[in-house]
Amino acid sequence: MERLPTELLVDIFTWCTHSDALTTITLSRVCRRWKTITDNSPSLFQFIVLDDRYLSFHLANRVANFYLAHSSGLPFDVDVNIGSRDSLLPLLSPFLNHLNRWRSCTIGGANEEAVRFGEFWDRGNGEPKLEELEIDVLDVVEMDAMTENMRAQAAAAGDALPPGTFKPYTISLTSNLLYMTVMLSKLPSPLTLSPLRFVTLSIKESLLSIPPDELLRFLTICSSELEFLSFTGAMSDHVITLEDPQCPPPIVSLPRLRSLVLHGTLATRILLSYLHTPALQELYLERLNVDFGFPVLNPFLHLPSRKPIDPSSVPSQSPGDESQTSTSGHPPFPTPAENPHPPSCFDFECALEDGDSDDEFSDYSQSPHSDHATGMGLRSLLSRSSPPLSVLEMDYADMRTKDFVWLFSRARSLTDFKIVASDMADRVVRMLAPDADGTMLLPRLRSLELVNCQRLSGTAIVEAVRERARATDGHITEGEAVDGFPLEDVAVVRCANFTTADALELVEVLGERLRFH
């Protein structure tokens, strides 16, 4: 071997690198000559082999970064073998920031596919970049069912293979942006990942629930460039024990986040309470209302000491109370007067924040627990971040009256407000009318949509909108300055107490700006 020319040894070593992740490193330790050869041959580091059966995530990450550094900017190929789908994102994360060099990826084991990235790129459209990551958190049975369904759809469409982990974000002729989708049984720990850089992140859970603190910790590894975040939950209540508050989630700074969607989750309060989003412009809260009880307090707030709650000390509901059901068919809930401090629903004591008491208003609600959680989460988010929020849509998401009072008095940048299926009282919509001195809440509001809000009276809607429109429209026609933008679009849809007569009254003021049906 000592007599073989260096060029031949490099060829031999190159073939050896295809067998094991540590081959090149092992060869460099044989003798000084071989170390010199490996140190000066970047081509030996162009083929990277990773296998979760033999390498821990920590070691695999170190090996990947070692190869990326020693390949000196050359194109590289990756071959990974995974015994579990949960390994895929941790193993591939070091390479996602080097798409301009990444030539191919072969995946074997629990997920089999082969990708040639050159087929996605067009040289005239800039550097390749990961634009969006979609994560589906499923159990094994669901993964298998989804995989079979995708294969069946691909076969029906005449495609040889179902959609893989990677695909162009748009057609390859218009951008060099990449879309990545993975199926996992749990979110990976940030300790197993290299920093992730992408613009859009979509996470969906199904039967498996993602603990909110784990979701927040995952977000810490992909926070630098994230602009759009969507989380779809499964309305499952994650069990939090007395020990969990000892390790609270971090405050996650998302400095570029512009749009946030929370859909179908009971973790709204915890998630919003630990996000810092100073650039947030759009917030979409969807399908958060529930008519059952669940923990509404923040269990991670600091307490000098925590004590378990004695179940015998919690008042039980009498049989007479159980028979008092509402006309809507929803289960009864304690009124604020009966329950000024709602139970934590945890098995231990929790601290209260300003606004946690329910003693200010006694307005009816079919979803008091989710209203409480949503309102307190929104307070925490806006208090910490002071974002330039311009769009707020609450689709089957609601708050308490006191939370609307808090929001309307602070959201001065809000231009678009839409709410669907709210139990809001007349006093909430009346806050949109100018005060006696002409001061208006939500001074930049241009678009107002009230959909399926069955407890609002037509009179309250008409009076509030008419007074606001007269105040702002009149100043504009006279060329005067006013601390309030004119309404450009008002929609009242399927609100039972808003009649045709009410609509005709508003048409006199709004004209074609009113949509009613």
Automatic annotation (TrEMBL):
Residues 313-329 have a biased composition (Polar residues). Residues 331-343 have a biased composition (Pro residues). Residues 308-379 are annotated as: Disordered. Residues 1-48 form the F-box domain. It holds the Pfam family F-box-like. Residues 350-362 have a biased composition (Acidic residues). This is F-box domain-containing protein. It comes from Russula ochroleuca. The lineage of its organism: Eukaryota, Fungi, Dikarya, Basidiomycota, Agaricomycotina.
